[in-house]
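User: Hello, can you help with two protein structures?

Assistant: Certainly.
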Amino acid sequence: MASRKLKVGIVGLGGVGAVHLEAYRDNPRIEVVAAAELDEKRLATLASAHRFKPYGDFRRMLAEETLDLVCVATTVATHEEVTIACAKAGRHVLCEKPIAGSIDAAKRMIAACAEAKVKLFYCATYRFLPAVAKARALIQAGAVGRVLLMREQEVGGAGPENRHIMGFAHYPKGTPGGSGFGLVDHGIHLIDLFGWLSGSEVETVFGRGNISGDAASVEYLLMNFRNGALGHLLYEDGTFPTGLPGEGLFSWGSAWTLSGAYVPPGAWQAAPGSIHVHGDKGALRIFHYANQLFLTDKDGTRQVALEGRHAPGHFTAQMEACAATLLNGAATATSAEEGLAALEVLMAAYRSFEERRVVAL
């Protein structure tokens, strides 16, 4: 049983779906046997390159294929429909982030999978990036002492007319949404990650997020954790960067810029994304996509050696965790309940701005 490959189907072969597909290529634990995509040209091209059975209708794929798990990589607006259909077909699901467009939708997805006795995994891929996983191990080993502050910001761009706004297909008009590196589409990763790194739950939040179709502005989120740590996110892609020459890094993993451009492994990044973790005994600078990690304490600053697959290999690592659960009975990979918890924090930020107050969870 342990040597059998996990038979996977993918629904949605847009940007992130294509990355999933590429990451699973030639993996001894995973076999993509089918995929569904509405864009006929894209579907035909990818099916030829990756040798899977193509479907224009995901429901037909569910009816005709024997699948262990379906990766839902469609737009957020369709996550509920696709996931519930997979559950009714008896298929386990790995759902991309955010898990849903609303808390109620996420709860319906979880309930449908529980009723059908299938697992619903949440695609918290940042947890599987080598620099992030190593940072968590260092934190748990006491390398930074008590965590005081975790922060990330993505600020820059080429002016307001060049914002990388996600369309209504992703986030329906009037719902939480915005740019690809905004609070909903990107920050949801960090909401999940900060709790995972600190080993604590969010207690209160204050923030502001963009609404799909409305004029975009600066987005931010302050999270107070039960262990006393503070999490801070800051996003704005409608301005200009303040980085100086020489402050960049070579990105040893795949990455994406504020404009949505893809950066291949080995390329120079003038402003690589990074996560800062500050403790009372040390601090970490985590270049999650560039696949580099630095520790600073009383002995100075040093680079930490990393093992594992850089991006997009973190997609492979997450799917392998799902395979270990389904084929070998290993501890469950990231659960839907964790995706729901991140979504609840996100939605509380919107409520806090609307009501002009700190919101408790």
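That covers the first. Now for the second protein you mentioned:
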Amino acid sequence: MTVLKNDCFLRALQRLPVDRTPVWMMRQAGRYLPEYRRVREQAGSFMTLCTTPELACEVTLQPLERYRLDAAILFSDILTIPDAMGLGLEFVEGEGPQFQKPVRTAEDVRQLPIPDPEKALRYVPDAVRLIRRELDGRVPLIGFSGSPWTLATYMVEGRSSREFRKIKGLMYEQPELLHILLAKLTESVSLYLNAQITAGVDAIMVFDTWGGVLSPVQYRQFSLNYARLALSSITRERAGKKIPAILFTKGGGQWLEAMAASGYDALGLDWTTDIGDARARVGDLVALQGNLDPQALYAPIPTLRAEVRQILERYGEGSGHIFNLGHGVWPDVNPEHVGAMIKAVHECSPALHRGGAI
């Protein structure tokens, strides 16, 4: 078994002592990097990039060649499960993901298969195996999935949405049918993440992108409940080592206590939640990941450094913090500003792990 040369990220997830705060970024392999854009052009389409393990491996590793990051994240998409269910996923330039066959009726739900990740989604565990081999223990590898609620949102809406009329219409008019759909997706997510763990990821993350559009009661019933159930069916250990799990609900800051009690090891925070307040609310139950506003990467570098420093100071001394953005990096961000952010974390955080002030 490959020995990790840098386990700072995994130790922080488990709130074990570290020398400095680890750092990685959501969407760290993406369009802000010119080397990514070259491979994307070579692939011809986003889905070809996702479904070709060699290309997915190449773009996963690209940010690690530029920056001193503490984790790699599998290059893929949260909508691979619905695509494997036969809904016909397309990425339309300027419009985002769309499904040729959205889920709208009881018959639509009944016909949905539970994808076998080593068959219908084989390209994902194959990519994990290849990335893990190429990483050779440099840093941990993060696997991920969309949450059942977020996947259901895209599947019922048929595309990205601002109003969420169709999924909320289903929720209010046929809640039992929505629960059946969410149960199928929960099983699919568990199988998918288990396959990634078997293939070699060192941690997993569940992206609940649209949990924040729900009311408090709805969030617990339709989103958090199924994210918790998915986690309960995941094998959280490989070769005697724990596989930590992170839950990120965009817009979920008001529900931190409930999220912290759901069984996940860490919670991702968006930029609308103060990380110091979050730490006071959850105590020692979970680690916290985040939460620089992605727009701060457009700021002058001195301002950017000050924003990084403020988040580190607000979290305070000790382990249990993974520095990240509050959402994904934007495509037109200057890569030099990303490097400046990472450098600031490396320079400013060690004092907080020696009992000192920044």
